[in-house]
Amino acid sequence: MAANTAVRQGLRPLIIEKNEKAGKKLYITGKGRCNFTNASDLDTIIANICTNPSFMYSSLNAFSNYDVIAFFEELGLRSKTERGSRVFPESDRSSDVIKALLKNLPPKSIIYNTKVTEIMIKDGSAFGIRCGEKTFLSDNIIIATGGLSYSSTGSDGDGMRFAKEAGLKVAPCFPGLVPFNIREEICRRMQGLTLKNISIDITCDDRSVYSDFGELLFTHFGVSGPVILSASSLCDPEIFRKRPVLHIDLKPALELKVLDARLVRELKENSNRDFANCLKNLLPSKMIPVIVELSGIPRDKKANMITKEERTNLACLLKDLRLTILSLRGFEEAVITRGGVDVKELDPKSFECKKIKGLYFAGEVVNIDALTGGYNLQIAWSSAYAAAMSVASKSQR
Ligand SMILES: Cc1cc2nc3c(=O)[nH]c(=O)nc-3n(C[C@H](O)[C@H](O)[C@H](O)COP(=O)(O)OP(=O)(O)OC[C@H]3O[C@@H](n4cnc5c(N)ncnc54)[C@H](O)[C@@H]3O)c2cc1C
Asked: What's 138's domain CATH number?
């Protein structure tokens, strides 16, 4: 996006890309469909940014989500808007987004298979980059090297290293939008099971630190799904070092008393059946053996023999299924990286370093991240646009 903006402003940008082709991460976004922005209003976009949202006001105003849609439309990429105002290419192909971005770049404006190894800075100004033996001189350098997630796509933290070498502050990095490892093996037994409309609460030292409602997926290592990915990005990362507990309310629409009354009814209607056969109206089949086991009620106990205490404990279990969070999954499974170049080092209008003239950071390398929904790419587009416009304005002076 920075290069496209620069070309439109009459500049001749040079992109140095270490991969053999452009946009390897873009290619895998949105499950190969690329949710490239979100068609909601500015307040909603800001509300979906988890880290440093107010830093984005200026650049989002200068190049909004609607500008992004219009930009791609001009390049022949028609879009469609889906649930949650998520915007995708009409073709459902992320490769079309990459093609659109490359369409107007002059030949030879991208040098592939070339890794930037060092940013050259003198007297508080950037003046070039080194790529091994080769040197490229320029008074303006935009670093858009991404974060640390899915490093096979090329983003392995070089940009953060360049920032540190330049004496800039870099916020510690954590995987974001990522599943949880869970201690209890019941997750593995329920792997593949999706629970819609559950609520979660995360506690640390018995204190609630996060609550949400949504969809959860059990996996062989623990839990995933939208409600968990959001939690990974919205919780203070430090809590994951303290073995927090995940509480799942399987019946959030029913208060404990109401749920207990429902259990009374179910058990009455199935009075001569084994306990394990009484839960199919309440729980998905994959979950029943797990809940039966955790309830401590013998699976073959007849429903009419279940005591009030056993029933109350069962109701409490359904309202509060507890799992021990061991850790976040790693960067290789994280949709984004939390952390990166400290925004205090940058001017929000241009993303230029305050201390080093001509040095810009844009996209995921900066300590700004958002929830799923096209917001992370919007951050990348708006910050890249801001940086390129700033470079262009210098050349027009
Ligand atoms: C599986 C997955 C799905 C996602 N889906 C979505 C989605 O649908 N919508 C959304 O908004 N966001 C999505 N994201 C997040 C989004 O892809 C990123 O936030 C976005 O790509 C960041 O853009 P960027 O340009 O900053 O970094 P990147 O896209 O990571 O690009 C960085 C580029 O810099 C190159 N590079 C790195 N170091 C060097 C070096 N030293 N020298 C030369 N080149 C270098 C890399 O090779 C790479 O091409 C997804 C992420 C993942 C992992």
From this structure: 3.50.50.60
Does 40 share its domain with 165?
Answer: yes
What is the separation, in whole angstroms, between the first and last Cα of the chain?
Answer: 23
Same domain (yes/no): 344, 290: no
Q: Print the domain residue range for 325.
A: 179-329
Place of tokens 């940058």: 346
Question: Ligand 1 centroid vs 364 CA: distance in angstroms?
Answer: 7
Pocket lining: 310 vs ligand 1, CB cutoff 6 Å: no
Q: Identify whether the C-beta of residue 377 lies closer than 8 Å to the C-beta of residue 33.
A: no
Q: Which atom of ligand 1 is nearest to the CA of 24?
A: 49
The pLDDT value recorded for residue 243 is 85
Query: Rounded to two decimals, what is the model's pTM?
Result: 0.96
pLDDT of 396 higher than 80: no
Which residue, chain included where needed, has tokens 């510690």?
172
State whether 323 and 244 are in the same domain. Answer: yes
101 lines ligand 1 (CB under 6 A): no
> Is 383 a pocket residue for ligand 1 (Cβ < 6 Å)?
no
CA of 189 from ligand 1 middle (Å) equals 34
Residues 171 and 32 in one domain: yes
Ligand 1 contact via 219 beta carbon (within 6 Å): no
Encode burial over 325-342: b for 16+ CB neighbours within 10 A, e otherwise.
beebbebeebbbbbbbbb
Instruction: Give me the pLDDT at residue 241, please.
Output: 84
Residue to probe by mutation, ligand 1, list 45, 119, 145, most atoms within 8 Å of CB: 145
Mean local confidence (pLDDT), 87-99 = 98
Atom of ligand 1 nearest to the CA of 334: 53
Please tell me whether residues 143 and 28 are part of one structural domain.
Answer: yes
- Where does a domain end: 281, 306, 329? 329
Measured over the CA atoms of residue 48, residue 51, residue 237 and residue 224, the dihedral's sign is positive
Q: Whose CA is nearest to atom 8 of ligand 1?
A: 30
**Same structural domain for residues 146 and 248?**
no
